[in-house]
Amino acid sequence: MKTLGYYNGTVDELEKIQVPMLDRACYFGDGVYDVTYCRNYCIYELEEHVDRIFQSAKLLEITPRLTKAELCELLKSLVKQLDSPNQWVYFQFSRGTGIRSHAFPEEDRSNLWIMLKPGEIKDTYAPLRCITAADTRFYHCNIKSLNLLPNVLATQATVRAGVDECILHRDQTVTECAHSNISILKNGKLITHPANELILAGTGRAHLMACCKAQGIPVEETPYSLSQLMEADEILITSASALCMRVVEVDGVAVGGKAAYTVKQLQDALLADYLEKTQG
Predict the structure, then answer these.
(1) Do 52 and 28 belong to one domain?
(2) What is the dihedral of CA 186, 188, 193, 196, to 10 degrees?
(3) Helix 68-79 / helix 46-59 crossing angle, nearest 10 deg
């Protein structure tokens, strides 16, 4: 298969999969998701991503119809059905199916969606250009929910500006990006926004923090401002597809470039970890 779609046990090419109009994901975005990458048919940090989707589901009181172990085994079996060994791996739970009503459906039975297509992580060493925008999302950003309209609008703004990512802020305090986490290096220290309800603490962010600690780089989880961002020694973007990418421009102004050696060390270590764990 070139692509794969899965819905509650039905498997086919993505464009052939159909889902019920009454799935609550369709009219409420009532669900949670996660995404990672596969290389050589090995899914990177699968257990970590499955743990996170179950955590998000718990916060929204969604009860998955299978266990963590069962989801892991299902994903492992499905990726092997694609022709390409390197894939984008997406999976989500919706709350269930029923006539539109804001209240939860009486039958507590979630739906499982899975999408697979050929995909590669981004070039870790490529420089990024960004813009900034007000963070207009709600106060449950720590839940990886399907409600992504503000993220969609911010991403579209990057497309129109011809840049790579949009950095979000609330009253001049940097939170995260449209679809990634952001951290800064300043005076030999990594600074990143606290993992509270204002950000989705991504797995890439966690790996970067662990890598810094392993290399003796202090890590501080504290809010920082747009002005501090612009004055940082380096600005780093992390996500499932961006292991550790350096920002070189924000709103048309050159930034960073003052700790290139440290950034290269982190990039090398994180890329080596990815390659080692996806050898096949």
Answers:
(1) yes
(2) -160
(3) 130
How many domains does the structure of the chain reveal?
2
Q: Which of 118, 140, 166 is the last residue of a domain?
A: 118
202, pLDDT greater than 80: yes
Whether 123 is in a domain gets the answer: no
Is there a single domain that holds both residue 74 and residue 17?
yes
Give the range of the structural domain holding residue 158, as residue numbers without chain letter. 128-277
- Options 58, 76, 117, 144, the catalytic residue: 144
CA distances for 16 relative to 12, 20, 272, angstroms: 6, 13, 37
pLDDT band at 108 (very low <50, low <70, confident <90, very high): confident
Contact 193, 175 (CB under 8 A): yes
Residues 180 and 262 placed together within one structural domain of the fold? yes
CA pseudo-torsion sign 165, 15, 73, 141: positive
* % pLDDT > 70, the chain: 100
Annotated catalytic residue 144: yes
Whether residue 142 is found in the same domain as residue 255? yes
Structure tokens at 271: 């890329």
Tell how strand 165-170 and strand 128-134 pair up: parallel
Angle subtended by helix axes 203-214 and 260-277, to nearest 10 = 120
pLDDT tier for residue 101 given thresholds of 50, 70 and 90: very high
Distance CA 179, CA 238 (A): 9
Radius of gyration of the chain (CA): 19
- Which pLDDT belongs to residue 139? 86
- pLDDT category, 140, cuts 50, 70, 90? confident
